[in-house]
Write a structure and sequence with these properties.
Helix content is about 35%, strand content about 20%. By secondary structure, it is α/β, with parallel strands linked by helices. The strands form four sheets. Strands 1-2-10-17-14-11-12 form a seven-stranded mixed sheet. The chain has a six-stranded mixed sheet with strand order 4-3-9-7-5-6, with helices on both faces. Helix 7 links the parallel strand 11 (about 235-240) and strand 12 (about 265-270). It starts with a strand and ends in a 6-residue tail after the last strand.
Length: about 350
């Protein structure tokens, strides 16, 4: 079987392994229903840093170190680092990893960045270009609101469909071989991916992330099903990254119009991380950190325990900038789909 599948998909013949993962979140995320899943929960949004941006760099550092420590790897053993965030010029990531000394490949897919990083890391390993590659993505509520919408001190009213940017970072180490592991802990592998194309339905509201990104999620799902000759029923669950309550409802309608029923095989990660009754996040969660920490903290536990066997991980991203919004531009969006499977077979180095 070839590595190129259909028009925009790839099959990883060696099925690279997710060797380890690390997750760090802020206090609001730690207080939510998934709080017990994360490696580290901060007590406050700055964690002792002088600014929110410097705090986000700490998120990056801590999740990467957690993943490397779990794998028993030092920085020199990681051949490449693929990572990104939401800030201008990937500020949080650049300053977070500047002392790592690891060859760095900056990735920007807005809130879809974890899917992009994971896909590129798997391609590097599958192609024989690296033994171990780190993939990471982060976001911070305060830095994102400050950059994309309004300063926090402004106190503006958020519309009910607005989502809450997750403060968190998730990292994985992708490797060519599984490391020795505890009995009963399943191997988790990246088997394929579908790269998304930019989709723009003309949405201009910077608060309406779910509505803007849902068509991009639908587009990549349709391409994925066609390329791999699959349907929603071929997966235990399809997880979009951060469409929230309103965007995920729109996605289901768009897919039904194309003849695909997602019901029973679909969840949006942006609806899982917060308790809307107790935390009042309006439309749910968003941000690079949303899909990154739910993958590394929540989904990986289900995959490693065998509660999930095959999932389609579909982070979604809105490719707007403060400049484009100020110039009255609409919001181009993108989504990437990554096939992740677990196996009960033990494989030694």
């Amino acid at each position: 079987m070839g590595k190129m599948v259909g028009k925009q998909s790839m099959r990883f013949e060696t099925r690279p392994v997710i060797v380890s993962e690390g997750s760090v979140v802020g206090p609001k995320e730690g207080a939510g229903p998934l709080g017990h899943c994360f490696d580290t929960v901060w007590k406050d949004e700055k964690n002792g840093a002088q600014s929110w941006e410097k705090a986000e760099s700490q998120l990056v550092q801590q999740s990467l170190m957690a993943a490397m420590e779990k794998a028993g790897l030092c920085k020199k053993q990681v051949r490449y680092l693929v990572a990104g965030d939401l800030l201008n010029q990937l500020t949080a990531t650049h300053f977070g990893v500047r002392e790592f000394g690891v060859p760095f490949l900056g990735a920007y897919g807005a809130c879809s960045t974890m899917g992009l990083s994971l896909m590129l890391a798997a391609a590097l390993v599958d192609g024989g270009f690296a033994d171990y590659v780190a993939a990471e993505a982060s976001s911070h509520f305060c830095t994102s609101e400050k950059q994309f919408r309004t300063p926090l001190g402004y106190g503006s009213q958020r519309p009910l469909y607005a989502t809450w940017t997750v403060t968190g970072s998730g990292s994985v180490i992708v490797g060519a071989h599984e490391l020795p592991r505890k009995q009963g802990r399943r191997s988790v592998r990246i088997c394929g991916a579908t790269a998304g194309a930019i989709v723009d339905y003309g949405v201009k509201d910077a608060f309406n992330m779910g509505g803007a990104m849902a068509p991009a999620a639908a587009a990549v799902l349709l391409a994925h099903f066609q390329d791999f000759n699959r349907s929603p029923q071929d997966y235990d669950c399809i997880y979009t990254g951060d469409l929230g309550y309103y965007g995920s409802e729109l996605l289901c309608k768009l897919m039904e119009e194309e003849g695909f029923l997602l019901e029973g095989h679909y969840r949006d990660l942006g609806t899982l991380i917060y308790s809307n009754e107790e935390q009042d996040t309006h439309g749910g969660a968003s941000g690079c950190g949303c899909s990154a920490v739910t993958l590394t903290g929540y989904l990986m536990k289900k995959l490693r325990s065998g509660k999930l066997n095959r999932i389609l991980f579909v982070p979604t991203g809105a490719l707007l900038s403060p400049l484009s919004t100020q110039q009255g531009e609409s919001i181009p969006c993108i989504a990437h789909a990554v096939i992740i499977e677990s196996s009960g077979e033990r494989e030694e180095r």
